[in-house]
Structures are given as C-alpha cells and as structure tokens.
C-alpha cells in the first residue's frame, strides 16, 4: 500500500468519524478502502486503475456528503463503487464471497429442473419424486463445484 492510498484512507476516516456504523456498511466503505489499496497497487501496470485514481480522489473529497446527504455525490459514489468492483472482478480476479457458489448453483438449479421435468414425463405414477431427483442431481454437483472455486479464491486472498 502506497502513500496515495494511505492518505486517502486517513481522509475517509477523518470525514466519516461521526458516521453511523450502519451507514458505513450500507455504503460499503470498507470495500471502497480495499479497492483504493488495490488501485494503488495495480496502477503501475493497469491504465484503467491509473485513470480511476482521479475519480477515487474526487470521491474521497466528497465522501462525507455522499454518505450523509442524498444527491449527485451519492449517485456518483455509488456508480464509482460499482465500476471499481466490476473492474477488479473482470481484470484482476477479485470476487465477492460465495460468488461462484451462487452463480454455478443457479445454473445447476435450472439444469436440474429441466432434467427433473424430463424424468417426470417418463413416468406418470411418481412425478414429484422424479422431479426432485433431477433437481438434486443438478444442484448438488454444481454447488460443490462452486464451493471449491470459492475456496480457491479465498485461499489466493482474492475476495472483494
């Protein structure tokens, strides 16, 4: 972590020292601080991170207004947080906790439901049981696969 990010962390802490803990969690201040440190680390090799330093500096200067008052600064801050998160995920491989578990399981649920429906059409007597078997066949392996991918992300310390 360089001087730029440490200075911005100090500014954020100074401006938000009277803010409620609930507001700090809602506006994802900790995530913002982590992304500031990552931008500082990656700005030497990533032009998008270098460009984001300007937007982040502006956002930090008005962060107390963004957290405490509705308006343009809050919208700009929210857009910046979303843009930084997407960039960190897409370009640098940082993911939210349980990202792969939820994403891959969702597709497993859809695939399992289709499989269960097809099995259900085969036998008229035990339709519900066959549907549930197909659902489980789709969900369980995909949940385990997603969990293992999330575990790998945690091990590499690439959590958002």
Descriptors for this entry?
0% strand, mainly alpha, 160 residues, 2 domains
In short:
The chain is mainly alpha-helical. Helix content is 80%, strand content 0%.
Question: Can you describe what's shown?
Answer:
By secondary structure, the protein is mostly helical. The protein folds into two domains: 3-92, no CATH class; 99-155. The protein has eight helices and no strands. The chain has helices at 3-15, 21-26, 29-42, 47-61, 63-68, 72-92, 99-122, 127-155. The longest helix is centred in the last third of the chain and has 29 residues, at 127-155. It starts with a helix and ends in a 5-residue tail after the last helix. The mean pLDDT is 89.
Radius of gyration: 22 Å
Number of domains: 2
Our measurement of the CA-to-CA distance between the termini, rounded to an integer number of angstroms, reads: 16 Å
Number of helices: 8
Structural category: mainly alpha
Beta-strand content? under 5%
Q: What is the ordering of alpha helices and beta strands?
A: HHHHHHHH
Number of strand segments? 0
Q: If you average the pLDDT, what whole number results?
A: 89
Quaternary assembly: single chain
Shape: elongated
Q: Quick one: biggest sheet?
A: none
Q: Considering DSSP H and I runs of 4 or more, what fraction of the residues is helical?
A: over 70%
Poorly predicted runs of 5 or more residues: none
